[in-house]
Structures are given as structure tokens and as C-alpha cells.
Design brief:
This protein is an alpha+beta fold. A 5-stranded antiparallel sheet has the order 12-13-14-15-16, with no helix packed on it. A 3-stranded antiparallel sheet has the order 3-6-7. It has a two-stranded antiparallel ribbon with strand order 1-2. It contains 13 helices and 16 strands. β4 and β5 form a beta hairpin.
Length: 450
């Protein structure tokens, strides 16, 4: 679906800015009606478990004093803060109200870094940086791994804050304007700057190659490419973050067009064009998949490749190649488990001891981001496979639904699906009632034309 059609769809989804999308016709996604209805209702219930309303608290992490409802990455005990990326990735499920969207957007804008700040741990939070997550008391945390304002950063997480959040911030604004028809918010002032100026500033923070406009880091100025791989050391050109930059450039072009700023629109259109042209050159195909980076951990990336197809960042022949590679991997059993997706195929593991070449914290193989299976990317993978083999994509989607039904957290405390990630070795499961494990697939299934 081209961007124009997505924009129209978002307006329909976001009517009155509180889309009760789980009442939409279930056949829209191609799954059996009962499966789509189940997924929609489960998503609504997970989202409700993820809300932290004003004055509500989480043991050991205080109460929400930010002035509005926060949506954290899941329910129960996982991640007791507001994560920008998880929230932004969940927006298109259509179940987040105008009030919740506006609060999240303006809170994130208010916590954007005003001036360069050298943290006590030796990292740098540059002017314009967007937090990785925001605590319930409103304190911004720019790096993974902590809720402590003074302890954030350090050698493990890189010199710069997580880079992807800058582009997710832009996506938050673009979605809000699209769904709620509130262009005026772009010229509202937050801490002395218009929102549109804050978006422009955020776009410039992640370091990039001036020739290709792709996000580029070294070991010395490393930042996280994508938070769902934040424990993995990626250097050189960064695939996932560059894809997010491509989408953000297109979104900023649209926003500036709405404000009548044609020069700005052309500027961002040119960046998007340059990025798209260089993606297949800088991240060359390895057995059909794009590589995750051009430096450390430059392995064929399932998530990044599928996401590139999903957001239409590849030419048709390249998208076909990715779809065929994912279909082969699914048939061969190197891609998924119970409808959950690995970051890299099992036969692309770096060694017997680790899936990725290098992790920045001690993550055992087949645990967490180093080889466990996740649902967040299931919809993207189904979408990419569906471009070449729709019945196979539907089979994967139904495996995903079956696992959710079996482990449905609503059955009681002994159940936890949707999980953040799982692995059959030791019946490993982490973080129950995880939001993007249902919001992202739901959105993708709606987009699919089976």
C-alpha cells in the first residue's frame, strides 16, 4: 500500500481519534473471522493492561505524575516506564485515544534534550536527542538498561542515545496528524520551540553518511540501531535505523507539505530517495536477505529485511527476493517457532556460542535478542512472504494465533501469551502480556491483501 493510501486508511482507522478498530470487519486481514476477532480483542486487553493512568503506580517505580495516561510496553511486571518506540510501533493498532496520543507526543517533545549533556558515565546526550524511555515521574532516560537518571549510558550502550527513537518520535507526530486531523499541533510551542522544529531537530541527531544519507556509526560514536536489538553491537551503516530514517523523511515531507513549506518537503523527499537507492547497495543480499549493518554483526537480518518490504522501502524485485528467502527459511525451519520469529535465521548464527557476532551485555545464545523467537515481527514476515506465497503466509499467521490461544494470559496467572520472546530450549519465556507482540501483527494483518 502506497503512503497516500496508508494516510487515508489511518484517517478511517482513527475516526474521532479513538478508533474502536476491533469492531471492524474481521475478514479484512484474510484470517478466519474468529481468529481475527480473537486477535483484536486480545490486543485491546493487552493494551488496557499496559496503561498507567494518572496517579497509578508500579511497586518500586513510583506513580505516574506526567499529567496523562502512559502506555508501557506491556502488562504485569514488564518494563515499568513509557518506551517511545514500543508506543510508536503500537499506534496503528487504532486503539489509542486522541487524548492518550496527544499526551504521549507532547510529553516526548518536552523531554527532548535542549543542550549537549555529557553523562556521568561518559556518554553524550546531544542537543535534540529523544529519550529511549520516560519514567513514571517524567524523568527522561536516553539509554537502555536503567531507570536511574544519573546512571544512564556508559560503554555497554554506546556513546550516543538510542538512535531509532528520533525517527519514532516523528512517526508519532505523523500518525497523530493523520488520524486526528490536527495539523495545528505542528506549530504549537513546547519549551520555546514549535513541534515541527523539534521534529526537524530530532531527524538530524543520528549520525549519517553524507553521500548515502544512511545512518552510520563507528565504535567510538555508536548508538543503538533499533531497540529490539539494543543488546547487539552493530557498527558501520545501520539497516534498521536507516529504514526508520527513510520512513521519517517521507513523513516529514508530508507534514511540511501540510504547512505549505515546499522547500522542506523537497529536502526530505530527496533524502528518502537517496536512502532507498543505497539500501540494496550498502546492505547487499546474503542468501536473499539484507545485512543488518556494514560493520559489527553484519549478518543477514530477518527483521530488517521483512520490515523493508512491509514499509515499501525496496524495489519490487528486491522485495520479491526477500519474500522468497523468508518463505524458504520458513519451510526449512530456520525462521520461526510457534509463529514467533528469530532476528536471524538459525543457519546464519555467528558461531555455536552466539547468534549475533557480538552482544554488549552477556546474553546467552537462544535467549532474548540473541536467538530467541519474538512475535513483534511476525506480521512483517507474514506480509513479506505473502507477496510471493499467500497460503504459506497464512499458515504462519495461523501458527501465531494458535500459540496465543494456547497461552492466552486471560486464562490466569500461569499463562502469559503474548510473550515478549520464547525459545523451546528450557521452555524459555520472557515478559508476559507484551504489547507489540499483538499490536504489530494485528496492524500488518489488516494491511495484507490475501
Amino acid at each position: 500500500m502506497r503512503r497516500k493510501n496508508i494516510f487515508i486508511a489511518l484517517i478511517l482507522i482513527g475516526c474521532s481519534c479513538f478508533a474502536v478498530s476491533f469492531t471492524c470487519p474481521a475478514r479484512a486481514a484474510g484470517l478466519p473471522a474468529k481468529d481475527m476477532h480473537f486477535l483484536q480483542q486480545l490486543t485491546a486487553d493487552v493494551l488496557e493492561q499496559s496503561r498507567v493512568r494518572i496517579g497509578q503506580g508500579i511497586d518500586g517505580f513510583g506513580k505516574n505524575t506526567t499529567g496523562g495516561t502512559l502506555i508501557r510496553p506491556g502488562g504485569r511486571s514488564c518494563y515499568p516506564a513509557f518506551w517511545i518506540r514500543d508506543y510508536a510501533m503500537s499506534l496503528e493498532c487504532g486503539m489509542i485515544s486522541q487524548q492518550e496520543q496527544k499526551h504521549a507526543l507532547l510529553l516526548t517533545a518536552a523531554k527532548q534534550q535542549n543542550n549537549d549533556w555529557h553523562t556521568p558515565t561518559g556518554s553524550l546526550v546531544p542537543r535534540g536527542a529523544i529519550p529511549d524511555h520516560i519514567n513514571l515521574d517524567g524523568s527522561p532516560i536516553f539509554f537502555p538498561g536503567t531507570y536511574d537518571f544519573n546512571a544512564q549510558g556508559g560503554p555497554s550502550w554506546g556513546k550516543l542515545p538510542s538512535l531509532d527513537d528520533h525517527f519514532f518520535f516523528i512517526h508519532m507526530a505523523w500518525y497523530y496528524v493523520a488520524a486526528c486531523q490536527d495539523t495545528a499541533i505542528l506549530e504549537s510551542e513546547i519549551n520555546g520551540k514549535k513541534l515541527i522544529e523539534k521534529l526537524d531537530l530530532a531527524f538530524q541527531v543520528p549520525p549519517s553518511d553524507p553521500k548515502t544519507d544512511l545512518v552510520l556509526v563507528s565504535k567510538e560514536n555508536r548508538g543503538v540501531s533499533f531497540g529490539f536489538m539494543d543488546s547487539v553491537e552493530h557498527t558501520g551503516n545501520l539497516l534498521f535505523c536507516s529504514l526508520l530514517k527513510w520512513r521519517a523523511a517521507r513523513e516529514l515531507a508530508e507534514l511540511h507539505m501540510k504547512l505549505g513549506q515546499e522547500d522542506k518537503k523537497k529536502y526530505y523527499d530527496q533524502i528518502a530517495s537517496t536512502i532507498k537507492k543505497n539500501i540494496p547497495i550498502v546492505f547487499p543480499s546474503s542468501r536473499g536477505l539484507l545485512t543488518a549493518s556494514s560493520g559489527k554483526s553484519s549478518q543477514p537480518c530477518v527483521w530488517g529485511s521483512a520490515f523493508a518490504v512491509y514499509i515499501d522501502a525496496l524495489e519490487p524485485d528486491q522485495a520479491n527476493e526477500v519474500g522468497q528467502a523468508l518463505a524458504r527459511a520458513y519451510r526449512q525451519g530456520t525462521l520461526s517457532y510457534l509463529g514467533n520469529i528469530r532476528h536471524i535465521r538459525t543457519d546464519d548464527d555467528f558461531s555455536e556460542k552466539t547468534a549475533w557476532e557480538n552482544t554488549v551485555i552477556n546474553v546467552a545464545k537462544n535467549r532474548y535478542q540473541n536467538g530467541a523467537y519474538w512475535n513483534t515481527s511476525t506480521g512483517w514476515v507474514c506480509y513479506a512472504i505473502a507477496q510471493v506465497d499467500k497460503p504459506l503466509a497464512l499458515k504462519l499467521a495461523q501458527e501465531y494465533i494458535s500459540e496465543l490461544r494456547e497461552g492466552d494470559f486471560r486464562k490466569g496467572e500461569k499463562y502469559g501469551s503474548p510473550w515478549e520472546c520464547i525459545h523451546p530450549n528450557g521452555n524459555y519465556k520472557q515478559n508476559a502480556v507484551y504489547l507489540t507482540s499483538v499490536t504489530c501483527p494485528l496492524t500488518a494483518f489488516r494491511k495484507l491483501h490475501w
